[in-house]
Amino acid sequence: MKVVGLHPDVLVATSRFWQTTCTLVRSGDEGFIIDSPVLPDELDVLPAISEQASFPVSGLLATHADWDHLLGRLAFPGAALGVAETTAARLRAEPGAAQRELRDFDDEHYVERERPLALGEVQPLPVPGRLDIGSEVIELHPTEGHTTDGMALWLGWAGVLVVGDYVSPVEIPWISETGSVSAYLATLRRLEPVVAEAAHVVPGHGTPLDGARALAILREDIAYLEGLPGSPLPLARRSKFQQKIHDENLTRL
Predict the structure, then answer these.
(1) Which terminal Cβ of the chain has fewer Cβ within 10 Å, N or C?
(2) What are the boundaries of each domain within the chain?
């Protein structure tokens, strides 16, 4: 797992699997862990990273309800989990889904964990909205399209935007069974002015981006979605697996 600092108050850890990102943010004596790495050894070391870097953990946040973003409770079992109201509704509508998908992943990749995932207390957050952290404020922006739920988090004092599964340098826009092209486009257009203001953007998958590159990827993603079904894959994202995602997207049209 690679850990980089984007600001004195922001660290980003990138998992070895799927390049899933986990963001540590602090202000004064308060701090949050946003999303999670995937592998057990990465989760095991996360408390030590936060302690050694003096990043307090007041709670956990997740950008959306896909299982690979919900594993923070395995590292901090006593922490409450804050999610968008849409994500809380999805978790209620899909009880046990994240746990089943995690077990399927572990079975497929021969991963062993010491304990099962328990989400514990889930706190719905109004989105759009604001979340106090120390003397600062995190702005919450709605992000639907990839799935039916989600939020992006704007850490304005640090110039960092955490977007979840959008604006990825390694993954094209992925429309899940509950997502839609129109909602995805609306999310990208809603985020565009924030991305333009950001010094750094943290995608759900892929290393953190500087603002200029993130804005270029966002506009590339808009062009891809607007051009469906005849869109070519973005030049830097033309792997076999991205072609598979593209083929799935076509079924959602």
Answers:
(1) C
(2) 2-252
Query: In terms of pTM, does the model score above 0.85?
Result: yes
- Residues 175-200 pLDDT 10s: 998 999 999 999 999 999 999 999 99
Stated length of the chain: 253
Please report, for residues 74, 163, 191, the alpha-carbon distance to residue 186 in angstroms, rounded to integers and kept in the order given.
33, 14, 9
CB of 242 within 8 A of CB of 229? no
Q: For the chain, first and last CA: distance in Å?
A: 36
Residue 29's Cβ-count burial label (10 Å; 0-12, 13-18, 19+) is exposed
d(CA 70, CA 63): 9
Residue that is written with structure tokens 């923070």 in the block: 72
HSE at residue 63, side-chain half, CA atoms within 13 A, is 28
How far from the centroid of its chain's Cα atoms is residue 6's Cα?
Answer: 16
CB crowding 3-14: b at 16 or more within 10 Å, else e: eeebbebbbbbb
